[in-house]
Write a structure and sequence with these properties.
Residues 1-45 form the HTH tetR-type domain. This is AcrR family transcriptional regulator. This protein is an all-alpha fold. It is 71% helix and 0% strand.
């Protein structure tokens, strides 16, 4: 592997079966290509988070939708994410700034949801929004390191596990009992009648 810094546009077009003209029709440079690779997946999660923010009835449902779409991105855009995390140090400052704006917008939506959950009394009041938000971002982002398509768990299974872990730690005991949230939690494989 050449890595982003070592690869030429000629090698990119040869490997992708296109032409230099085709490449430069879509991208001004390798730098723009690297930016677009990131923009695909950050735009997806940001759009999904905005949809969850505007369409959900309450913060718990909103957070469940945000986490599910966040986890799903590691399946939909696995090659993009791998390239970005390995090569992002080569991004030019103007592209880095654009990415930072979208990432900040995404982070703010998560923080807003956590604030709303605390204000509504559904999320535990003693859990700080900033640390909780950064924990969710860090925990889910690390998926890119270990997720393998075709593994034992589907991306939907993994999303359900994340939702269960996060909501079980965030929701008040009273909120956990709400009927409409029961589908957000994993079901035990043990038949309670056999205990």
């Amino acid at each position: 592997m050449h890595g982003f810094h070592g690869v030429t546009v000629s090698q990119i077009v040869a490997e992708s079966g296109t032409s230099k003209g085709g490449f430069y029709h879509h991208f001004q440079s390798k730098d723009e290509l690297l930016y677009v690779i990131h923009d695909y997946f950050i735009s997806y999660v940001l759009t999904k988070a905005k949809e969850a923010d505007s369409s959900s009835k309450n913060p718990t449902e909103k957070l469940q939708k945000i986490i599910q779409s966040f986890v799903k991105v590691f399946h939909l855009y696995k090659p993009h994410i791998s390239v970005f995390y390995q090569e992002s140090i080569y991004l030019k400052p103007e592209y880095t700034e654009e990415i930072k704006k979208k990432r900040d917008s995404y982070k703010k939506l998560i923080f807003k949801c956590l604030e709303e959950g605390k204000e509504s009394g559904e999320f535990r009041s003693e859990v700080p929004v900033d640390i909780t938000g950064m924990t969710i971002l860090g925990m889910v982002n690390w998926t890119y390191k270990w997720y393998q398509p075709g593994g034992e768990k589907t991306i939907e299974d993994i999303g359900n596990i994340f939702v269960d872990l996060i909501l079980n730690s965030l929701l008040t005991e009273q909120a956990k009992q709400k009927k409409e949230y029961q589908s957000f939690f994993l079901k035990s494989d043990i038949n309670q009648d056999q205990i």
